[in-house]
Amino acid sequence: MQHVFSTMGTVVSLRIDDPGVDAGLLADVEARFAAFDREFSRYRPDSPAARIADGRLSLTGASDEHKRWYAEAVGWRNATGGAFDPHRRDGTVDLAGIIKAAAIQAAGSALEGAGIARWCCNAGGDVLTGGGAPGTPWTVGISHPEDAGRLLSTVALLGDRRAVATSGTSQRGEHVWRTDTAGEYRQVTVVGTDIITADVLATAVLAGGRDVLHQAVDRWQVDVIAVTDTGDLVEASPVTATS
User: Which residue from 208, 198, 226, 180 is spatially nearest to 98, judged by alpha carbons?
Assistant: First the structure.
């Protein structure tokens, strides 16, 4: 079965290979996304994130959940040498680079907790999967940066690979603060074992360029598919990270 709903400024498509899914489980998945949206959306004027951004609320006065994800994001900033950063250039806290992945992860936990054997959660092109019979892996399409209606590539999620995340400039413009002034990549897709690592590293590589790409592959053992500013395709994995 397939269940589609809108949340967090995007569309979530949930595929569950089980015809007898309880409606309460679908409601739980939606509720988990909604909870992250209420807490972290900067587009909701009264959300904690919006109030922190404009100074009405201090970070120290925020909820434990908010402080937890801020700490997680700062940890990633330190691990990537600043390529991933939970702050805007003016110092404002912005957790958008990690929160959608956190919501996807929470949805996946709900599905696994309910005993669903095989499922796929796609939130605006970022994908987390669960289960899969031998020989029939989940296959995820990656949109072309110049034409969202066209596929750049497809990825078969084999072995421990469960997550795919993409960061780019084609649909949202230059929304990532780059540390590589050349703007080396226009789109970066990361394939990994968990959605938070994949999503954070996609943003980090887009911001930091080639050096961060190789750091990501070597340290976190992810696969990367990137499109350069000139349109060339770069693919790197823990075995073949030579591009």
Answer: 198
Task: Give pairs for 82-89: CB < 8 Å, separation 24+.
Answer: 82/179, 83/179, 83/203, 83/204, 83/205, 83/207, 83/208, 83/212, 84/200, 84/201, 84/203, 84/204, 84/207, 85/177, 85/207, 88/177, 89/177
pLDDT digit string, tens, across residues 61-112: 999 999 999 999 999 999 999 999 999 999 999 999 999 999 999 999 999 9
Q: In the CATH hierarchy, which fold is given to the domain comprising 2-236? A: T-fold (3.10.520)
Helices (H), the chain: 23-40, 48-53, 64-79, 96-113, 195-208, 210-220
pTM of the model: 0.93
